[in-house]
Amino acid sequence: MTRLAKAAHAIDRVSRSIGAVAAWAALSMVFLQTAVVLARHLFGLASVFAQELTLYAHAVLITLGAAAALSRDRHVPIDAAVKTARPRTRAWIEIAGVLLLLLPFCAAILWFSLDYVAAAWAALEGSTETAGVPARFALKTLIPLFALLLALQGAASLLRALDVLRRRDEA
């Protein structure tokens, strides 16, 4: 395994480990939402806290699981023809996609979210509901974290594509 492939593999391991932790949020969402529905319909009880916690679990699943999904190639491909293209062509398409689309997207999210998240932390922003989760600042922190993890996984895709081109040139 080349150094580029080893580095890409290490990033994959990080993304997949974080994704595995985030996957537990799906199970917690099911239990929380079931409890909210049962409490409301069987006992006439409502819990804003539990409803917001379900929303938080969903946000964790999506934002922290996105990089893991990308590492497993579970995102929508740029083009269906990419799957039938030669490895070298696929590598060039991957490089273009990462450099022209993914990394600028991640950079924009990161750039525009930093002040937003910093303000939330400065105020220790809580829920707009009285009985809600008092940690909206933590929820907002997922936004730049999402961008960083996705950019890191994009770097792994870039390294893999460069490795394909390098091996092909050496052959």
Structure description:
It is a single chain. The chain has 171 residues and is an all-alpha fold. The protein has four helices and no strands. The protein has helices spanning 3-43, 48-71, 87-122, 136-170. The longest helix is centred in the first third of the chain and has 41 residues, at 3-43. The two termini are 15 Å apart.
Helix and strand topology:
Layout: H1 3-43, H2 48-71, H3 87-122, H4 136-170
Helix pairs in contact: 1-2, 1-4, 2-4, 3-4
Radius of gyration equals: 20 Å
Question: Unreliable runs, pLDDT <50, ≥5 residues?
Answer: none
Structural class: mainly alpha
Q: Give the helix tally.
A: 4
Content of β-strand: under 5%
Summed over residues and divided by their number, the pLDDT gives a mean of 92
What is the assembly state of the chains in this entry? single chain
How many E strands? 0
Biggest beta sheet summary: none
Shape: elongated
Helix content: over 70%
Distance between the termini: 15 Å
Please trace the helix and strand order, writing H or E for each element.
HHHH
Labels describing this entry:
single chain, 171 residues, mainly alpha, 4 helices, 80% helix
Q: What is the structure about, briefly put?
A:
This protein is an all-alpha fold and 171 residues long. The chain has helices at residues 3-43, 48-71, 87-122, 136-170. The chain contains 4 helices and no strands.
